[in-house]
Each structure stands twice: as structure tokens, then as C-alpha cells.
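Q: Could you fold this chain for me?
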Amino acid sequence: MIGNVFHDKRTKLAVITLALFNLLLLPVLVPDLHSLSWSWATLWQPLFIFSNAATSYYMYSSAHWKWPGFFLMMLTAFSVEAYPSLHYVFACGFFLSGVWPMWRNKRLWGYAVPYTLSLPIFLWDILVAEIISVGFLLAYHSHLLFLVWKIDKKRRK
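A: Sure. Below is the predicted structure, expressed as C-alpha cells.
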């Protein structure tokens, strides 16, 4: 039952919107945030957990996005406070595993260029790199959802 709900285009759009809300709102609400993962130590922890859980399920149910979905769920399960080393391993896995599916998509590979170029920013500023890279992931998945919507609309005619 829940699998069918997450394949609904409106639900995917809601998950993308929630992730965008999380991405843009957390740095404003928590000005001294070093990375999005440190929202574990704030009152906004439920937003972080729910957003990541829904996003990871959405990714895991999408073709070629199983590894990023798995890594996102694992970095959410292992908080940066309690398991910093393990959390960062899963975070690296998430961001690196997102490169291949983006390059693989012939229609949307253009998102892969800025996404890949944003990854070295992690060496200087984790939060800025997260905002940029997750922003491109959200743009990619929004565009993909729009294309699927467009194809379905043509099929129904």
C-alpha cells in the first residue's frame, strides 16, 4: 500500500517540496548550523528525519537511485552527534553515489555537471556544499517528475 502512495506523482512532488523546505528553512532557523545533519541537535530534528526518510524512500523506489536512497536513510539513522564517523561515511556515500545516476540519464545529464562540480566545496564549507548539491538533486528530480507528468499527459490523450 505505502509503495503505491510513493509512486503517486503528487506525493513525489510533496516530498520534493518538503526537502526544498528543509534545505532552505533550516539554515535560516538555525544560524549557527554547520551542516544540515547538525539539525539533530535542534528542535527541528523531526523535520530533518521526516524529510530524509521520505526522500530516501522516494529515491530508493526510483530506478538507478537505490544507493543514494540507502545512504540517505543510513546517514539519517546514524546521527552526527552519536555516530559522527559512521554518519560522515554514509553522507559521503550519499553525495558520491548521486553522481552516476545523474550522468547516466541522457535527457537530464546537464544537472550532473554542476552537481559534480559542487562536491569539492565540501572541503571548505559543508553547509554551502550541501545546499548547492542538494539543490541540484532537487532540481533534477523535479525536472524528471515534470517530464514523467508530461509523458503521462500525452499518453492519456
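A (continued): Residues 2-156 form one domain.
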